[in-house]
Design brief:
Structural class: mainly alpha
Distance between the termini: 61 Å
Number of strands: 0
Order of helices and strands: HHHHHHHHHHHHHHHHHHHHHHHHHHH
Mean pLDDT: 92
Number of helices: 27
Oligomer: single chain
Low-confidence stretches: none
Length: 557
């Protein structure tokens, strides 16, 4: 099982997602048919479930991935297997990060860190410390970000791991960038990483450090140095013929020129890269540059030229036999056609992308194409066709067995129907969504569905039912520690109370929502909650004024 997970990870790193999926599913089937007692295969099955979660994560099936990892974690905890517990916590940290649940991600990473320390796995410890540092940097918690990156650097130096030390120095640079006055420190650390990476021949580490150094120089308003470093990164990436690194380095250069209002320079750089990409014979690289050229032409106000470049990228990928990338390119062409209001052509491009993805068995690709069809139909005010395409998305997920995504799509359909046909039409898909989330044991999803149901009940003039739904949603969210979900339910209840002219209850639950967000450290959402509370008090003042009563606006202020 451990070997299968390693093979699956290697396949995923080569973007062979379907092959990775087949290898894991085959191993799971063979294990189930082995005739061994269920108790004897629990741990092997749990490891394979971790591998399957890796596949789900690659496909952005985040909830399905999380459920599998949590199930595996319970097995490892029952067996007191600390090595695999650490791996499970590490996977949960990655999934939570992808869900943009930074605090949850940090909590899981800290659990993994403690276990790796207990196991004496110093290399894993250093790696997790860098992940924790980056998460803190993303929260602009510079002190903790610097501390963890420094710990990783010291550990790598102690181990004699120069590649890890270079990565830690680059991580330190990113941590410095999260400080208000940290640009100079970031430049220093990034350049140390560049020099060390060059000395040990770690080209990828060098490129990453050069990109961070360029960003740090931009923050310090040293534009010429930033441009020079980005060009060095691009040259190194070209030698590696690495499309992702080339695109990232090129993007920095183009952004600098465009920010300086020099689109012609940006165009010249991209054209130069296009010549080199064509000479390399790398179709994916050529297509990526063509798509960047399309973006530049949009900024120059040349939509027809932008479309020509996007279509050229599509053809390059088609001729080279890269169907997945071709489907993505056709979706991009659809976007360009939509911006020009060529609705029928846009739908044709999206439908072609859908057909390619369907042939590949790429359900996310199919749905992305159908989402574009929905957007185009909405733009051309063809509500019936938009609703039809939305139901097609649900059917695609259902056929693939993607229940989480099916439930979320049903909720989206409910929102869409509510605005286009009214709450009565929207209620059934909302209720179906809740039932699916219940079946999956997804309390977060169920709470979200209940909030949608409550809003529909408000539209149907059923405030008592709406309050009952918000209460259920609030209790569900509280039971899993979901502050955002709890606040959303409370704020919906505040709206219902205002509709009933029950101002004191509205103020009470709106205040409770604000306090929940404050306690959770969700500052941006807390700020929005203060505005909602302000609106409650303003509504009280307005209603008092309408009825000839006096009201004090200072609470709202």
């Amino acid at each position: 099982a451990e070997a299968i997970r390693a093979i699956a990870k290697a396949l995923l790193s080569r973007e062979s997602v379907a092959e990775a999926d087949r290898s894991v599913e085959t191993a799971l089937r063979e294990l189930a048919e082995s005739g061994r007692a269920p108790e004897d295969v629990k741990k092997e099955e749990a490891i394979l479930h971790l591998a399957l979660a890796d596949v789900h994560l690659e496909r952005s099936r985040l909830k399905a991935a999380r459920r599998l990892v949590e199930k595996s974690l319970a097995v490892f905890q029952a067996a007191d297997d600390k090595k695999w517990q650490a791996a499970a916590f590490e996977a949960l940290a990655t999934i939570s990060s992808a869900q943009e649940k930074v605090d949850r991600s940090l909590e899981m990473a800290e659990q993994a860190l403690d276990l790796y320390r207990e196991l004496g796995d110093n290399r894993k410890e250093a790696l997790i410390l860098r992940s924790i540092s980056r998460a803190h940097a993303g929260k602009e918690n510079a002190v903790e970000a610097l501390k963890r990156a420094q710990e990783s650097q010291a550990l790598c130096r102690e181990l004699g791991d120069e590649k890890g030390e270079a990565a830690a120095l680059e991580c330190l640079a990113s941590a410095y960038l999260s400080k208000r006055d940290g640009a100079e420190g970031a430049i220093d650390m990034a350049m140390k990483s560049v020099r060390l990476s060059r000395r040990i021949g770690d080209v990828r580490g060098e490129i990453a450090a050069l990109q961070t150094a360029a960003a740090a120089n931009l923050a310090a308003r040293e534009t010429e140095d930033a441009l020079r470093l980005a060009k060095e990164a691009l040259e190194a990436a070209r030698k590696e013929d690495d499309v992702a690194f080339i695109s990232a380095s090129l993007e920095v250069i183009l952004s600098i020129h465009l920010q300086n209002e020099l689109p012609e320079r940006a165009l010249a750089v991209a054209e130069e890269e296009l010549d080199l990409a064509r000479a390399s014979g790398n179709a994916k690289r050529e297509a990526a540059v063509l798509q960047k050229l399309a973006s530049i032409q949009v900024t120059r106000g040349q939509p027809k030229e932008a479309l020509r470049r996007a279509e050229e990228a599509q053809e390059v990928l088609c001729k080279a036999g890269h169907p997945k990338e071709e489907a993505a390119a056709r979706r991009l062409v659809c976007d360009h056609l939509l911006s020009q209001k060529r609705f029928d052509d846009a739908i044709a491009a999206a439908r072609k992308a859908e057909a390619i993805s369907k042939k590949l068995g790429d359900t996310p690709g199919v749905v992305q194409a159908l989402q574009l069809v929905t957007s185009v139909c909405c733009e051309k005010e063809d509500q019936a066709s938009a609703v039809k395409a939305s139901w097609e998305q649900k059917a695609a997920y259902q056929e693939a067995g993607y229940k989480d995504e099916e439930a979320s799509t049903l909720l989206g359909i409910a929102d869409f129907l509510s605005s286009s046909k009214g709450p009565r039409e929207a209620m059934k898909p909302a209720l179906d969504s809740r039932a699916l989330f219940q079946e999956l044991g997804d309390k977060e999803g169920e709470a979200g569905a209940l909030v949608t149901i409550a809003n529909l009940q408000v539209g149907l003039q059923s405030p008592t039912d709406a309050l009952k739904s918000t209460k259920e949603a609030e209790l569900l969210s509280r039971s899993i520690g979901d502050a955002m979900g709890q606040a959303s339910a409370l704020q919906t209840a505040a709206n219902v109370y205002m509709m009933q002219n029950r101002s004191s209850e509205a103020a009470r639950v709106a205040t409770e929502a604000k306090d929940v967000l404050r306690n959770a450290g969700e500052k941006r959402s807390e700020a929005a909650a203060w505005l909602i509370l302000c609106q409650v008090h303003l509504n009280v003042c307005a209603r008092a004024s309408d009825s000839g009563r006096s009201a004090d606006p200072r609470a709202a202020k």
